[in-house]
Amino acid sequence: xxxxxxxxxxxxxxxxQTRLLLILTIVVFMIIIAVGMxxxxxxKSVLQQELSEPQHQMLRISMNDIDEVIRESDQxxxxxxxxxxxxxxxxxxxxxxxxxxxxxxxxxxxxxSSTPFIKSAYIYDLERESMVAFPQxxxxxxxxxxxxGWVGVAAELDDRPMLVKRREIAAGSAxxxxxxxxxxxxxxxxxxxxxxxxxxxxxxxFKHMLLSSVSDLDNHRFILDANxxxxxxxxxxxxxxxxxxQVLATLEGEKLGExxxxxxxxLASQTMSPYTGWRYLSIISQESLLSNAQxxxxxxxxxSLLALAAGAATIAFYNRAAFKPVKRMRQxxxxxxxxxxxxxxxxxxKITGQLLTDHAQxxxxxxxxLPEASSKFLTDIYAGNMTGYREIGExxxxxxxxxxxxxxxxxxxxxxxxxxWCERFKKSDQSLLKFAIANIIAELLSGEWxxxxxxxxxxxxxxxxxxxxxxRELDACTSIDEALRMIPKLLKFQVSAGxxxxxxxxxxxxxxxxxxxxxxxxxxxxxYEQVIRFxxxxxxxxxxxxxxxxxxxxxxxTIEAGSGEEAIRLMDKTFNRMxxxxxxxxxxxxxxxxxxxxxxxxxxxxxxxxxxxRVSGLRTMNLESAWSLLRNEAEALAAWYDSMQLRxxxxxxxxxxxxxxxxxxxxxxxxxxxxxxxxxxxxxxxxFKQEMNDTILGYFTKLRMDRACELLRETDYRxxxxxxxxxxxxxxxxxxxxxxxxxxxxxxxxxxMRARRDSLLEx
Length: 763
What we know:
alpha+beta; five-stranded antiparallel sheet; 29 helices; DNA-binding transcription factor activity; transcription regulation
């Protein structure tokens, strides 16, 4: 039978499911045991802590009362020491004066009678060994005094003014009795002349040391002196002196502790008197304290065994039904990794865990990339890189699942005076500051709006908004204006915004971006830190204008002629015209950028390696700031050219530059340019490099590329035709030089300029 039982065990335990059940049963059993034991010891600890606190409080109350008795007795001893009759008793030659002794005894009687806890008082003269006491009276020698065994305490009082200790006194033929006495020195002229001894009534002194009238716990309390000698004790539980010594060794200064003595588990708590140095000790038998807790422990253990048996039966009963889903999972996962699937559950767990881990990782990656993808979605629509409605709809449903069909609003935020902002902040901090702008907007608006910000580069950030509650009437301009007011306080610079109209559908999202962009352009007239609605500027009518190109050409000629006053007059005239006619911002900015590009070309002629000023930064300025910048630049260039007019070398270089401008389409060599200026090619190269800070060939190439840019912007000639117009016979050579000079191909440049022009026309 034993052999068959072993075969049955071996057959069952080869199955992983059975092994799992066994392990689970053992674990549950251990958990229940651990919970039961933890509960028992936790209850025990709580009971000890809760019981020790009232015991400790009772000890402190008794200590405070006894300390007060001793403190009051010490004050009485001080009064005795300062009494005039005591002084006469210690210093007069005739010590036994009847009158002085009588008055002194009456004084001691008065003090003793008025204090219920004082039994008697002694005054001892160290020099003459005489004594006055109440109720004993006067004794000329300690030998004749019935209670004089304490006079040797003077040695113990050497380094302290007062001492309280227990002593043994003879009581006739009876057994010696114990007495607690307070001793105080009497000092005269810095010398020890006598000792005062005040004997206490023990029952009155320790009357507050009472046992609990409510609890039946077995306990015992002790009062020990500074040498750990018992002074007083009471209790209903006998504790020997050895047990007290063991308690003191176990506690080692701690307020609470437990120890075992003669098979009994005891709980001790103590406190020390800072005034007398006495130790107040309470010892409680834990057998009576934990009797009910032990019953609870046994009951919990028994219930745990019953729960364990019931759990094991339940697990066995539901085993077959519980593992049916597992079998189904094995069938479903068999196609995932056929080689790794086996009857063992551990393989199924590994594969399922791997699938869940992969899914969780993909979910994390999706959550991390979703904000970036949604921002890329907005930037692609803004740049025109995504025009198909089907593609837009698919990405919208993928990135903006939580968004509803409520109207959308688009706001474009722009840093005011971007050029000055770039000079003010380090390049490494600029991206962080733009990120901070988006964070401030998101933090302040997220309570009422869904929003997605996207960085458009340079000075701009686009924000798409939708109300969280479609039923509430919210104004996007008001919300954005409140947020923009916080940016100068937190980041110390200003930001303006253009806000579109509410758009009902996704198909109008690009139109909303154009509206916000167009509204932002009116910062040119309204100034910095403004929130501009498209509704407020949509009715703006632009008057017809003419002569802007002629003005830029005339301005260039005037500056290169060195006529600064004439250049300023031309610019101020146009500026006043722009203000009075209220040009549309797109046209005004285009004209300002045209003037800036002309000034840039003039500056590059003077110093090809100069960085100049950023033309694109004009879009972020108001009209006065932009015009002041251009005016100062024109004035500085005109002054430089005026200073150069009188130099012969400069005139020669200007002659060569004029010849280059007239022969951009011809195959001109350096020798041809030098012969036109009337000097040799070597000298021409040297003078040109000295005056223009560039080589003749390099300068000629820049002139040709500037002309090519103009033709690409303003004409529809093919690139091959433009190449021949600027002196290149082969289109590939022209494209290679253009890319090297402008960092962009001619075709891309033309597409970019057309897109910008179309956007301005649509707005």
